Amino acid sequence: MTLWGGRFEGSMSDVTRRFTADDSDRRLLEVDIRGSIAHVGMLGSAGIVTEDEAARLAAGLEEILGEVDVFEFVETDEDVHTAVERRLGELVGEVAGKLHTGRSRNDQVALDLRLYLREAADSRLAQLRGWIETLMALAEGVADVAIPTYTHLQQAQVTSFGNHLLSYAWMAVRDIGRLADCSRRLNESPLGAGASAGSSLPLRRDQVSETLGMLRPVANTLDAVGSRDFVAEYVFCCAQTMVHLSRLAEELVLWASQEFGMLQPGDSVSTGSSALPHKRNPDIAELVRGRAAGLIGDTAAILSLQKALPLSYNRDLQEDKRIVFHADDTLARSLEAMVELLDGSRFAFSPPSPETAALPLAERLVMRGVPFREAHHLVGRLIRALETDGRTLGQATGEDLTSLDERFQADDLQVLEHSLTPIDDQLVALREYLR
Which of 113, 301, 318, 356 could bridge to 352 as Cys pair (CB 3.0-4.6 Å)? Predict the structure, then answer.
């Protein structure tokens, strides 16, 4: 079934049908029906169809809504919209032909996609909140565990493992903010924009928008059907979140190596090697890292899709769904898997290198009035002298310090005991945010 064809005498070829048909939009079935129910309610209240016709259409659509989990598409369904109208005709007869009154597939699919992404955003926001809670619970248990921070992948300073984990929680807070902002922007109704310039019928766009719980109708009809910046923004939000997950995934891969020895994934969250009996591989982390690349590609794809389209609607935009569905699905599965990985892993820690106390040692001198650049130089000289002697800063004595420069004091070596910044204030702030 197609929603067009009056001007055509011949039939579409099988090649054309296969190439132009899009079954990726089948997951829009439920939101398509809900949008149609709101639409026929408006048609009835505006007197465009009779109240009896509106009631019959709505009843038929409600019946289809109850069939969502078992709905059967047929080969001749051009898309989800034609499938719904076909099934509605089977249920209510010829009056189903009035369903499409006052709208085009252009504004219909734009509405469906906005409704779908609004619900998807709510699901991802809930997942992100759960991700933050997972990080917080783990961080609380390791708040007093000292680990090195790294710059240029070299040990730099000392922090707690809890503080390290909470850095990813704060990234997720920003991810939530971006996605929530995106959700508000996409929550506008394009229905009533028609193919491009509205309709001569007395449509009540505000009514449909209100019925669907949307903020307002999209103000400009060409913009309503021809723009997909809300899809691009959603894809970017997914991609940025995946990049954050990928950064932690990379660290988990490093920590699971024998060289770092900081992480052992449990049996339930790791795999083995077909050739090497001793291997325990952190595949979840590696796949998250790899799949982040796909979402970066999705971002480029959705932007490129729009870059040269004249207003208003072009069939190119059919490809937006494949892109955004892939991005959303990948993020959903990755968040789920990363929670599983952290919950199913055991962490072990080696003390940081003594040289990570170099900056605090220099700052002891600064507190005595030594210019930082000079203090930096003095500590560098001390470490070089110790290296020449085959020792580390952890093996230095008070005499090593005072003989190098009288502004050192023997008790400056107390900096080797590493004072960790508490994370309590961060946990309080995160709990308040999640409340």
Answer: 356
The residue length of the chain stands at 435
Distance CA 180, CA 192 (A): 26
Q: What are the residue boundaries of the structural domains of the chain, listed by start? A: 16-98, 114-144+161-198+220-347, 354-417
The DSSP output letter for 395 is G
AA identity, residue 387: E
CA 186 from centre of chain: 16
Residue 159's alpha-carbon distances to 63, 142, 351, 420, 423, in angstroms, are 59, 11, 11, 6, 10
pLDDT at residue 2 in the model: 58
**Digit-coded pLDDT (tens) for 74-96:** 988 989 999 999 999 999 999 99
In CATH terms, the fold of domain 114-144+161-198+220-347 is Fumarase C; Chain A, domain 2 (1.20.200)
Residue 4's pLDDT is: 45
| Residues whose CB is less than 8 angstroms from the CB of residue 257 and which lie 6 or more positions away in sequence, other chains included | none
Neighbouring-strand partners of residue 354: none
When the pLDDT of each residue in the chain is averaged and rounded to a whole number, the result is 95
- What CATH topology corresponds to 354-417? Ribonucleotide Reductase Protein R1; domain 1 (1.10.40)
What would the pLDDT profile of 405-432 be if each residue is shown by its tens digit? 999 999 999 999 988 989 999 999 999 9
* pTM for this model (two decimals): 0.93
Residue 210: per-residue pLDDT: 98
Residue 248: exposed, middle, or buried by beta-carbon count in 10 A (0-12, 13-18, 19+)? buried
Give the class (CATH, top level) of 16-98. Answer: mainly alpha
Q: How far apart are CA 205 and CA 39, in angstroms?
A: 9
Specify whether the CB–CB gap between 352 and 147 falls below 8 A.
yes
